[in-house]
């Protein structure tokens, strides 16, 4: 973990849809990573790669959720991507 910049100037900037809510992304990515850890797939050597993968999956999930909600309305009345 010594390779991480932990200064007060570190900022996370999202370049995708404004609908992506960062706490939701953090939560989803954390849950995904915990699953991989519990399965024993995460090691010190591959931890950074798994973290990146989990964040990518979480962002994709948020964007797909946004599309489904836009297509079906917030009440889930049907529709497709």
Walk me through what this model shows.
This protein is mostly helical and 81 residues long. It contains 2 helices and no strands. The protein has helices at residues 22-38, 47-72. α1 (22-38) packs across α2 (47-72). The longest helix is centred in the last third of the chain and has 26 residues, at 47-72. The N and C termini lie far apart (40 Å).
Mean pLDDT figure? 78
Percent strand equals: under 5%
Number of helices: 2
Helix share of residues? 40-55%
Q: Pick out the low-confidence regions.
A: none
Provide a short characterization of the protein structure.
This protein has 81 residues and is mainly alpha-helical. The protein has helices at 22-38, 47-72.
Reconstruct the topology from this structure:
Blueprint: H1 22-38, H2 47-72
Helix pairs in contact: 1-2
Structural features:
single chain; mainly alpha; 81 residues; elongated; 2 helices
């Amino acid at each position: 973990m010594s390779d991480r910049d932990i200064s007060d100037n570190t900022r996370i900037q999202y370049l995708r849809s404004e609908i992506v809510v960062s706490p939701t992304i953090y939560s989803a990515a954390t849950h995904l990573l915990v699953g991989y850890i519990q399965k024993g797939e995460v090691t010190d050597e591959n931890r950074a790669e798994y973290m990146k993968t989990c964040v990518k999956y979480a962002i994709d999930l948020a964007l797909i959720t946004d599309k489904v909600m836009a297509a079906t309305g917030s009440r889930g009345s049907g529709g497709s991507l």
